[in-house]
Amino acid sequence: DRTWAVPLVIRHDGETTSALLTERSMLLTGITGTPTTVNAGAAGFFRTAIDEAILAELEANGPGDRTPTERHGLVDDAWALTVAGSLSAVDFLRLARALAGEDDLNVWQALATGLHGLDRLVEGSAADVLAGTIRELAGPALASIGFEPGAGDDDRTLELRATLVRLLGTAGNDAEVIAAAKGAVDHAEASLGAAALTVVAHHGGQAEYDTIRATWLDATDPVTEIRNQRALAGFRSVELVPVHSGVERSPDGFGISSPPIGTILTNASRRTRSHACCPGSRLSTNPTSSRRSRPSSTTTRSRRPESRSTNTSNVSASTPHSGPERPSG
After folding, report:
1. In this structure, are 134 and 87 located in the same domain?
2. 3-state percent helix, strand, coil for the chain, nearest multiple of 5
């Protein structure tokens, strides 16, 4: 096994302590109180695992003094662990609920990535439960900024609105957002119009498909073409898939000749495939075959190397893992 050096920046009691993890197990001194994070600033190229103690603390006290960048890293790590089978979907939702009241764009984009991902893994009553949870989480955030853009909205607020509309209108199945989206497809604010088009396609049938397809084929600018081309991949009806396989754009087209058929097939078949989920109101990924045993306390996972901590001062490193990698920055 190869041991990787992992730089840690540990924030505790308002202070930060830096340490370089060079051995499989190291005892760190001078760490007082309970560390908020071992990756202050989210600058370290490693992941931090999330155990029951961390979830309970988040549920009791919220994100605490974590910065928006650190909150984004927390959610991003949680979703990567969920994909890897090391964190259950239920626990990911617990973390998401603990961030209720979040207003940062990047954090919401990370939450939306995970919630959209869970929506692809559940069906039936579990999908209904998840949709309700998404409405509870994202509904107040959208209500606080409104569906319609305000005169003083900056670019991040505009993009946050689009992220929330897309999430609520698709995975959240929010009736009010779905209805509002129908009238906002051609909105002057481009990000809202694009999000509304995604929602319309997600719930659309033959009539909506024909309209979007015609707009794509007749587009006279690349933005309109690409936006409507991508929207075609959002239709979930299996019957619509053969219609646009092999379609060619006119010779003066700006982009690819047909929508991404792989994406179309994935979206169209999502509700007909069998996925592991719990009955009633609980959701999970496969808890028996893919889930790893969860550590008993704070664990850091390098996006190349791994490191583990057994308590606030005893930290150990191990070999690289093969889970999803988080982009740097």
Report:
1. yes
2. 45, 10, 45
